[in-house]
Amino acid sequence: MPLVCQDCLTTKKKQVYFFQISKKFKGNSYKREIRQPSNGIHVDNWIEAIHLNLEDGVYCQNCESMINEMFLTPEEKELLLDNRRETLSFKETPIEDIVAKIKTVSGKVSASVEQYSVPRKAAEFGDLDFPLTNELSSKLKKKGIERLYSHQAEAINKVRSGENVVITTGTASGKSLVYTIPALETLLKDADSTVLYLSPLKALTRDQLQSLDMFDDHVTNENSSFGYKTLHIGDKKIGVGVLEGGKSDSVKELTYQSARYWLTNVHYLHFILQGAVHFKRKKDYIRFFGNLKYVIVDELHAYNGVLGSKVAMLLRRLRSLCKALGTNVQFISCSASIGNPKELAEEITGLKGVKGFHLIERDGSPAYKREILLWNPGKLEQESENRTRRAPISEAIEILRTLAGTYKKLPKTIIFYGNRKATATGSFELNNAIKSKLGEVLESREDIPTELFSPFHAQLNAYKKQELMDKIKKGELVGIVSTSALEMGIDIGDLDLCIMIGYAGSKASFLQQAGRVGRKGPGLVIQIFQEDPLEQYYAANPIEFMEREAEQVTIDIANANIVAEHMQYAAHELNGKLASAHSLFKVSAARKAEGFETKMVEVSRGTWELSTQELKYNNLLSSSKVYDVISQQGTNREILFEGVDEKSLLRDYHYGAVFLYNQRTYKVNRILPSKNEIIAIPFKADYTTRAQINDSIYIVEEVQRDNSNKLLEIGRGKLEITRRLWGYKRVNLFGGGSSELIEENNMYPVKYFTEGVWIQFPEIQQYDGALHVVEHALASAIPTGVKCSLSDFSLLSSSNLKEFNSIPTIVCYETSGGGAGIMQTVSERLFHILKKALGILKACGCANGCPNCTHLSICERNNETLDKGGGIELIENILTTAEVKMEV
Fold first, then answer.
1. Are 224 and 210 in contact (CB under 8 A)?
2. How far apart are CA 358 and CA 196, in angstroms?
3. In the chain, what percentage of residues exceed pLDDT 90?
4. Which residues contact 740 (CB under 8 A, 6 or more apart)?
5. Beta pairing partners, 637
6. Residue 711: which of 838, 562, 873, 864 has the closest Cα?
7. Beta-carbon contacts of residue 19 (< 8 Å; ≥ 6 apart)
8. Mean pLDDT across the stretch 862-878?
């Protein structure tokens, strides 16, 4: 039901726009616009309006009459509530005072804290080789941008001169102008030219669409949410549209037909290319790809591992199509700080040794002061075999409770916490603890919000994600507990405090997450280390943690199955025939893929042709089934999570699984494979469940063996992994008590193929306890040299594996199905990784092993049979032999 002004209704005036006044926030008068297009009520952001002396309420825009609340439905009243909460600002309260207060907490809980200060940095400016057009320069000046930073000017000059550019300056350094300015220049100059923006996330494309408002002469609020807009710049018009799954057909139709600036993600580009020649919109595709000038690859560092390997093939297909249509595209790429940005950009686009990329890494943008605390939880009085230190989430709760108790409010906060389950349980615990503390210090319990923190992760449905991002920007949430899904450049407003629970997995991720705060004022970052060995090693070596080199990002452009699959797609997109395939793809690798040469035939030297015109496209990242998790009560259905693959189903959403959503517990009671649905019902419980998984291994093919070291042999090849659920545990939501094991026998196992490395010790008699310690030490050391996390690979050690002839063996394999390039790097850098593993073991002073050096939280054997001394001796013997060999 629409809002209605009785006065205007009587005089038959058109009623669409209203506005709302509220003095709830800080006691000041704020105003927000209310629009009523055909699809319901839309409210804009609050804007301070001290000059308006009106009571709180909703007013008609035409006659400024207040709308009587009697005419509002309960749903409208809920929508029009002012849910903003005043937060603790580090601009108003000196950050030094905040840090001092937090350090008193460390004393109470016996935590060790190292403090690092990142000083405020002044801006460095640069000049363009020739000036911007008046239309663009005037828009920048309206936003207060009088001059470009040095890195922006250098990048734009290089792009203008025809070079491919990769830029790695810090978060919020204005990287978007590096590609937006050249894109708009070419779109304004050449009426046929087109530009493609690619991101790893849907939310980034929406951010880009909204950011273009600053260049539009006629900004309209509807366009950004609609997904298509026409930019009016001077006397020129430029169509810009979002292409992604879930957008309405009308948005896509407008974009295909009229837009010259397409905003999409790599997954949807894979779908777009599928129809580039054979689709009904053939003329639209030819118009766009035949005139493509720039391809913008945002968040380049996100394309590591399997995704990066497949994106490398995707961009080769894009180049192949554009070349066939008569154009050679130019690339502009943005990345976080990684160890090999230039090399990655060249490898992922296939332009290594051709045109190459110009790297820009000196950051000219200004920065506010940031304080970084490296926090290691204190030792427990009652230490156990499984835990010697306080839980990191308990430390985060204690920090925030102290701030709430001292200041009666909290800073705007983002908490990064490892996985989806952790974000749900972490936000649940935080809400309970902080609301309890605020209840003690606030005079009125009405001032305590119902929700302070919400979980955020990739499997939330698109509507829920947007709702949470809007709430944090508007100040209706104090904080978000997120997986790494929010470490990239999605706009969620100004934040003051970032807490990382556990190591982010790479220096690039640490810097990205830390860069979430201190954008428009001082910021505080707290890295809370967990009890895993690598994190305890960094806690003991804080200087190394802060000053270490960024990790290398790995992809595998020679993975036989990936290359073979995408060569077929490339040929299909060119009417079945791919010429000069070797200039884009590793054809020798594709030949090794099973059945490839029956699907494609080399009809002449370098030209390959599909054997059939029918070709089924797999999803870019996963060829397995994906499910939606649906809450069903009678006829009411709500999608809770999207894109759940079969491995996640087995781990998190099996029959009987209990999980959290919106601070409530749900239980899985049906799985419908034919509909790709997991049905859950609200279920009152004080626990969630944790699956117990094990893997069995079968060698499909050995592609490499190195037996040059007399103590060990290294094999690498293709493995078949069978993953089984053998039970699950109850994990209490409110702490205390031991988990209860419940047997689970009715789930089918999940099988997948992957890349693996196996290390065998044929000449020595070694107990499983020593092997187990080396397995854990390798797991901790691998992420120090390769940009990956513990979730990207698995390890297994035993002296009784029949598949490996019962020789003492450690097996390492990629959990995502192979193609990440991790295993090749592990085999190439094994002795370097072993040196780091030895350092991690020796960094702890214990004699027999403990959670700080030999235990892993993910160990399927519950950290039993660990022989620290034997593990150290084994690694030392291997390294000594390797060094002797190198000296000879």
1. yes
2. 20
3. 48
4. 729, 730
5. 632
6. 873
7. 31, 32, 33, 34, 58, 59, 61
8. 89
Whether the CB-CB separation of 289 and 276 falls below 8 Å is answered with: yes
Report DSSP state, residue 65: P
Secondary structure, 3-state, 79-106: HCCCCCCCCCCCCCCCHHHHHHHHHHHH
User: What distance lies between CA 501 and its chain's CA centroid?
Assistant: 16
Q: Which of 409, 408, 411 is nearest to 441 (CA)?
A: 408
Per the CB < 8 A criterion, the answer to whether 689 and 728 are in contact is: yes
Tokens at 5, concatenated: 């002004």
- Tell me the average pLDDT across 156-178: 93
Host H or E run for residue 757:
strand 750-760
Nearest to 741 by CA among 728, 752, 731: 728
Would you give the end-to-end CA distance of the chain in angstroms? 85
Q: What are the pLDDT digits (tens) for 283-302? A: 888 899 999 999 999 999 98
Q: Is the pLDDT of residue 744 over 90?
A: no
Question: How far is Cα 418 from Cα 429, in angstroms, rounded to an integer?
Answer: 15
Beta strands in 234-313 (DSSP E): 236-243, 261-265, 292-297
Backbone φ and ψ of 387, nearest 5°: -150, 135
The single-letter code of the amino acid at 781 is A
Q: How far is CA 823 from the centre of its chain?
A: 22
pLDDT surpasses 90 at 327: yes
CA distance 321 to 881: 52
3-state secondary structure of 737: coil
Scan for tokens 């789930």, then name that residue. 747
Alpha-carbon distance of 877 to 848, in angstroms, equals 19
Higher pLDDT, 434 or 16: 434
pLDDT tens readout for residues 52-65: 888 999 998 888 88
Rounded-to-integer distance, Cα 168 and Cα 184, Å? 22
For the chain, the maximum distance between any two Cα atoms, rounded to a whole number of angstroms, is 99
Residues in the chain: 888
Please say whether the beta carbons of 496 and 413 come within 8 A.
yes
Nearest-angstrom CA–CA distance, 782 and 822 = 9
Contact criterion met (CB below 8 Å) for 466 and 382: no
Residue written as tokens 């929406």? Answer: 206
Adjacent-strand bridge partners of 43: 34
| Under 8 Å between Cβ of 493 and 466 | no
Count of Cβ atoms closer than 10 Å to residue 414 Cβ: 23
Token couple for 713: 């042999």
How far is 202 from 351, CA to CA, in rounded Å?
26
The encoded tokens of residue 528 equal 């809370």
Higher pLDDT, 833 or 249: 833
Taking only the tens place, the pLDDT of each residue in 119-138 is 999 999 999 999 999 999 99
Contacts of 315 (CB under 8 A, 6+ apart): 295, 297, 348, 349, 350
